From TrEMBL, chain A:
<keyword id="KW-0508">mRNA splicing</keyword>
<keyword id="KW-0539">Nucleus</keyword>
<dbReference type="Pfam" id="PF01423">
    <property type="entry name" value="LSM"/>
</dbReference>
<comment type="function">
    <text>Binds specifically to the 3'-terminal U-tract of U6 snRNA.</text>
</comment>
<keyword id="KW-0507">mRNA processing</keyword>
<keyword id="KW-0694">RNA-binding</keyword>
<keyword id="KW-0747">Spliceosome</keyword>
<dbReference type="InterPro" id="IPR001163">
    <property type="entry name" value="Sm_dom_euk/arc"/>
</dbReference>
<dbReference type="InterPro" id="IPR010920">
    <property type="entry name" value="LSM_dom_sf"/>
</dbReference>
From TrEMBL, chain B:
<keyword id="KW-0747">Spliceosome</keyword>
<comment type="function">
    <text>Plays role in pre-mRNA splicing as component of the U4/U6-U5 tri-snRNP complex that is involved in spliceosome assembly, and as component of the precatalytic spliceosome (spliceosome B complex). The heptameric LSM2-8 complex binds specifically to the 3'-terminal U-tract of U6 snRNA.</text>
</comment>
<dbReference type="InterPro" id="IPR047575">
    <property type="entry name" value="Sm"/>
</dbReference>
<keyword id="KW-0508">mRNA splicing</keyword>
<comment type="similarity">
    <text>Belongs to the snRNP Sm proteins family.</text>
</comment>
<dbReference type="InterPro" id="IPR001163">
    <property type="entry name" value="Sm_dom_euk/arc"/>
</dbReference>
<dbReference type="Pfam" id="PF01423">
    <property type="entry name" value="LSM"/>
</dbReference>
<dbReference type="InterPro" id="IPR044642">
    <property type="entry name" value="PTHR15588"/>
</dbReference>
<keyword id="KW-0539">Nucleus</keyword>
Length: 99, 129
C-alpha cells in the first residue's frame, strides 16, 4: 500500500510524470489518480515521440493499467527521498525479516 | 460489417455494471477500494492499446475491476510504415483486462482532423513483462 499512498500524494500535487510502458511507449501527463493496483490516470497527455508513435494523437486523457508500467519518471524535486526511505524501512520492519 | 444483435450492448453493460456485492452496499465498497476507474469514460469514444500492440477504437459500454471492457462500434486501426492506417470494422467487442495496456479518451474533434491515410508508422510493440 506504500506506493499507492505515495502516488496519491503526487496526485494531490498535480505532478507531471512520464510513464514508460513495457511496450517502450512513453506517455507524459499530469497524474490524475492512482488505485490499489497502481493503475494510473493521466490528464493532458502527450506521447514523447509523436512521429514514431502517432497512435494516440487524439488522446488527451488516458488510463494506464498498472501491470503494463515499466517506469514512472518523476521530477526529482517533487520526491522527498528521505521520507520515502523511512517509510520503506518502517514497512519492512512491519513485514518482518523473513520475507 | 457484422451486425450487432439488439439488446446485446444493454445486456453486457448491465453485466459489467452490477458490482459483485449487489445493490448500493456493493457499489459503496467498490468506490472505497478504488479511486481510479473507467466510469467517466462510459459512452465515450475510446482508444484501447492491447498487450499484443494492437489499437482499437470504439465506444466504451462497460468495464469491471479486472479492466475487462466492452466496446461497441469497435474498429482496429492497423499501422504500416508504407501504407496509411487500415481500419477494420469489428462491431461489438469484449477485451479481456489482462490483455489491456492503455485506455485513452478520444478527442473526437482532433480525431476527425487526422488524415489516417497519410500516417506512416510502425505498429506498436507487444508488451514484454
Amino acid at each position: 500500500m506504500l506506493f499507492f499512498s505515495f502516488f496519491r500524494t503526487l496526485v494531490d500535487r498535480n505532478v507531471q510524470v512520464t510513464v514508460e510502458l513495457k511496450n517502450d511507449l512513453c506517455i507524459t501527463g499530469t497524474l490524475q489518480s492512482a488505485d490499489q493496483f497502481l493503475n494510473l490516470k493521466l490528464a493532458n497527455v502527450s506521447v514523447n515521440d509523436p512521429d514514431r508513435y502517432p497512435h494516440l494523437l487524439s488522446v488527451k486523457n488516458c488510463f494506464i493499467r498498472g501491470s503494463v508500467v515499466r517506469y514512472v519518471h518523476l521530477p526529482a524535486h517533487e520526491v522527498d527521498t528521505e521520507s520515502l526511505q523511512d517509510s520503506c524501512r518502517r514497512e519492512a520492519k512491519q513485514v518482518g525479516p523473513n520475507r | 460489417a457484422p451486425e450487432e444483435p439488439p439488446g446485446a450492448v444493454e445486456v453486457i453493460g448491465h453485466l459489467f455494471g452490477d458490482p459483485p456485492g449487489g445493490g448500493r452496499a456493493g457499489r459503496a465498497v467498490e468506490m472505497a477500494a478504488t479511486s481510479t476507474g473507467l466510469e467517466p469514460l462510459v459512452e465515450q469514444q475510446i482508444s484501447v492499446v492491447t498487450n499484443d500492440g494492437r489499437l482499437f477504437v470504439g465506444v466504451l459500454r462497460g468495464f469491471d475491476q479486472s479492466s475487462n471492457v466492452v466496446l461497441s462500434d469497435c474498429q482496429e486501426r492497423v499501422f504500416d510504415t508504407e501504407k496509411g492506417v487500415e481500419q477494420v470494422v469489428l462491431g461489438l467487442y469484449v477485451i479481456r483486462g489482462d490483455n489491456l495496456a492503455v485506455v485513452g479518451e478520444v478527442d473526437e474533434e482532433i480525431d476527425s482532423r487526422i488524415d489516417l491515410s497519410n500516417i506512416r508508422a510502425a505498429p506498436l510493440k507487444p508488451v514484454v513483462h
